[in-house]
Design goal:
Structural class of chain A: alpha/beta
Organism (chains A, B, C, D, E, F): Thetidibacter halocola
CATH topology of the largest domain in chain A: Rossmann fold
Number of strands of chain A: 8
Shape of chain A: globular
CATH architecture of the largest domain in chain A: 3-Layer(aba) Sandwich
Protein name (chains A, B, C, D, E, F): Aspartate/glutamate racemase family protein
Oligomer: homohexamer
InterPro entries (chains A, B, C, D, E, F): Asp/Glu/hydantoin_racemase (IPR015942), Hydantoin_racemase-like (IPR052186), Iso_Racemase_Enz_sf (IPR053714)
Helix content of chain A: 40-55%
Largest sheet of chain A: 4 strands, parallel
GO molecular function, one term (chains A, B, C, D, E, F): amino-acid racemase activity
Family (chains A, B, C, D, E, F): Belongs to the HyuE racemase family.
């Protein structure tokens, strides 16, 4: 068995890393690859702006270079910061959660929707999907208009998720992506409520990483 | 834990099913979803023509309807026959190996290539990728020009895979998909030889199915 | 002169076939190709689901194989079931009415709209148009929300057609396709009411078939 | 029955008009629309340059305005000069032969090819297909490198057509369009030789025009 | 230094030419290329219809041919009439203001919007942008619903520009193009009001022309 | 007049900055915006890898933040590093030379080609053009296979530029972009040799910046 899947939370909010860890618990199977969740010490407390996103690229690449024992990497921030940089410094697979989340959604529905945290990230995500060439299958991306931290704790988060998810369905989305690393615990409830697949992008990326490692 | 991943070989060649079974052995983990490989009794011995592909659609849908215990389904033929039909008769996820293989390749490289078995399937695959909206990222698809059965046994298969894989790389492919359900055993060797990720589409689909089931 | 244009109604509702026959009466010209309208005995009473559509593929291919005297074939169901299958068993031209309707609309306006019968068919049509590569010119597809049978008889059908056609125009459609084999008798009235070209897809397919046969 | 289909040869080479007339003879059926082939008096002897093409726009629009009795118009030059102008001055349908030829090819094959007369027209055609949104389905366009007049008479034309048609097939074309108004007489022979549908664009446009008029 | 940039107003409304002249005053720099604004004598008073647009193509080409001393040309009508014609008769660069305006907007924002004068021009512009291949980045085009002349003088023009510009922003436009040659004087005020870049297309074209000439 | 155009060479090779300075000399006009060429002290000696490109993002953003007096910025490296970051920290326009070069090429030809320095940058450029949505108009990008430094000095550079430029023309390119900040001095000679427009991307970006500033 190759080394573990190293899941990197590029912000320095340990609560987010803990949430990732919990969301991935079910993916840790005896005989399967290990899953290690790390907090990027150099990261900002939350990645909310373009500059926040750019600020973690080099630290991420260094972290990847410092883990020759890893089997695969997952960058657990929905802006996929440093994806190209990390891929350029290792031959092992590196998965971005935005990319993996979108690709996984494409396996579940003709059109997909995204629940973003903040308005500001929508344009950043759009640019990345343009580069992927998948905008033709995007129904819409609608922000919760909450901070990452708020959305991670807030009591009204679920209510707002249902509201935005419903708006995405009304625009044709047959699957919905949680556009943030920190909302996995709402996934099953939201899926039940909306009646369409709801995808946690970190789980999607880890599943792809597992597939790569199990293939041998 | 929900029911098993039911992997259906839509042709009636048991050797192909056995090959799938072997290729998925590493994906069977304690505590993880079961993986059951079935041969579609009504299928032709090989799916080589459009009519072969169309002939299995209704039997596949019936098989899916007859397995309310399953957690997810994988249609293990690279033409993805019956994908829409199966999805229309169940709320559980149904993965086609062509679709999953392509989406997984998109997580590994900007441009991907496909090694088809026979010339005749190239146009069929192209139509499906057009529908997916991903032709902009296809470097090329090149056939081995062998029958499914030949390729499954043949001694010259690996040699030919290396040759075609090299031609795909020369056209810009940064990842290569084995465009058939029956070539998984060549995957590691071919990846080593080519130096770019080589994707077995059935493994890719099973990894996506596992991700869905483990997410709960 | 080659053999007749064989227009196949893939459902077993003879009233629909009779409607086709009437709609094509004007296309039967002395010295031109014959036009024969057939009911597919094996078809369901209406093609409303994906499974209905898939269920007629093999019977359609068999029917085509059994008519070596035909000059061309038209599959007269807006889901274009069996188009690939039929094309794979004959060298004579096979026209699907969805495909022909869309292509004919593209000769009349920059953006076109579609009046579907039921909500359920919209996604199926979208997948086909994605494969065709023409979604960039689709203004919208809006369903009547009636069954095929209802729409074929109902008195309120015309009223509803005008309403949906008007909504399509408001979204930019410069031509409107009747997204069903059974609404040709409303075509002239609807065109007069809307003031933009209204296309009956079976007539569009038969015109293309005539063109092929008259070219010699 | 509405008025005739007026087919306008926008160049002043009467031999080309006569060729059109002959190519459309089979489309004149008792009880069907009349087909009238006209030479645009103001046109240049051949339309080979962008300026030639632009020079006929206003005369074409005037001709259209002067024929209130016509049922439909066909502009029989593969550059589709004046298509927008003519459509803006009449409510009756106006078909361009490039547009109609391409749309008809799309009903016959996934990928199509075009045999152009001269290198200089390839870029002009490409711009028009870009506007149509169909470049994703173009296999290739290859010029004969002959003048319109040469190609209309020349003895080596057929030989060269077979050569270019073969090259288009080798690049994936499943249907071939004669990219000129004056080559219809080679259509049946070339189709027999190549084994794929060969489309004369004027016949394609007239078939679409007939369909519109016969629909009533 | 090569010859001047010849900016051609293809309509015969001298007030529009004078407006262009004023809008370009700041672009006339000592040592830089001269900028000459001409009125096309043969042009209609305003270019509002397709036929108006087509009517100026040949006169524009003749004007270009008659100015061998020019360094570059700008066609200052937002429909870019005669762009292909003019380019075919000179080796010197010819810029259309629609094309230049759109390309300049693409350097300022992911999605752009257009303020058209009249509804009738929206479809014409859309066809040109389809040909350019940039529709994927168009947020929307919304007309002022005024005549060119009205918009050039009217007191309510600015009010209406702010209204339409706001609507474009609401649809995602990060930059706004004034879709007419005659609205440059509103540019700075509108940019200040909207808070996103506002592009006068004639200034955009002249800047591109300057770049070409200064490069030597 | 607003502040100067600040052109930033993100590598620390002063010879490259000096080359930029020389290439922009003709753009400095009395009464026009100043043009200041800076070397990014923190930059690597050459930007050849993804990591080199990522390493300058934050220093570029800081430099931009530290120049509130500037009128516009140009990032003079063909990978457009830090474009999003810089745009996020200032309201003044920021131009990337890749983006500006491509957009300027689109104003000169239907299809454009790019001469890259090294093979390694081709994929990076492709990803950026995918994001721009302009790959449909790319004829090809072909590398010189030289280092930035070599290409800046080498005597065989021009010979190789002509060779690669010719190959791009053969693939349909009607305009050619020099895909590097350091080759402007070859532009006029190469344009004369190839007979199609050759675009220096830094000059293209500065022309766009001038246009923005002169518009007021």
């Amino acid at each position: 068995m190759p080394g573990p899947i190293v899941v990197i939370n590029p912000n320095s909010n340990q609560a987010v890393t803990d949430g990732l860890d919990a969301a991935l618990e079910a993916f840790r199977l005896p005989g399967g690859p290990g899953i290690e969740c790390l907090t990027l010490a150099e990261g900002p407390f939350g990645i909310e702006s373009q500059l926040d996103s750019d600020s973690v690229v080099l630290p991420l690449a260094r972290l990847v270079q410092g883990r020759p024992d890893a089997g695969a990497f997952v960058i657990a921030c929905y802006s996929d910061p440093g994806l190209d940089a990390c891929r350029s410094v290792t031959k092992r697979p590196v998965f971005g959660i935005q990319e993996s989340g979108v690709l996984t959604a494409l396996a579940r529905a003709d059109l997909f929707g995204i629940i973003a945290i903040a308005e500001a990230s929508v344009a950043r995500h759009r640019r990345f999907m343009a580069r992927m060439g998948v905008l033709g299958r995007l129904a819409a991306e609608i922000p919760l208009n909450m901070s990452v931290d708020e959305s991670a704790r807030g009591e009204k988060t679920f209510e707002r998720l249902v509201e935005v998810g419903g708006a995405l369905k009304a625009r044709g989305a047959g699957a919905v992506i949680l556009g943030c690393a920190g909302m996995a615990r709402h996934r099953p409830g939201l899926e039940a409520e909306l009646g369409v697949p709801v995808i946690d992008p970190t789980q999607a990326a880890v599943a792809m990483a597992m597939g790569t490692l199990l293939a041998g």
